[in-house]
């Protein structure tokens, strides 16, 4: 085995990305199915309109999130079956898939806590728009509002002298 390298992180191969994407999709699919099944088991005995509405809502969130991640990670193959593109790496730090995985985790937490403890745990879903605003603020709004003022470019001596002569001529003409 080679010693660990300092500095730049090694890149992943297409096959490794494909394998990790399949494992990631399987993990989050299982998480969604288990939390949905447990919530449905509780819903059968203690059903109310609000619980049914939130159960349907959470199911739609799971389906949409999973389908979005599956679309992102869809590999492309040649007609002979050789791997051309492994799709987007779902485990990449700072990628959009990270936020989609957070939505699945938040939904599972809200669903299970509300099923077993109290319906008030559905209010945790308000963390999703708060997180969306935070990402919007950090990546788009804050750099726009707090960008430094443009600095005057430092002119070389020739341009500076030429500008001074021009200003003197203008002053003498008046």
TrEMBL record:
It is found in: Endoplasmic reticulum membrane. Its main location: endoplasmic reticulum. The keyword Coiled coil does not apply. GO terms for cellular component: endoplasmic reticulum membrane; vacuole. One of its GO terms (biological process) is vacuolar protein processing. Belongs to the TMEM208 family. This is Transmembrane protein 208. It comes from Rhynchophorus ferrugineus (Red palm weevil).
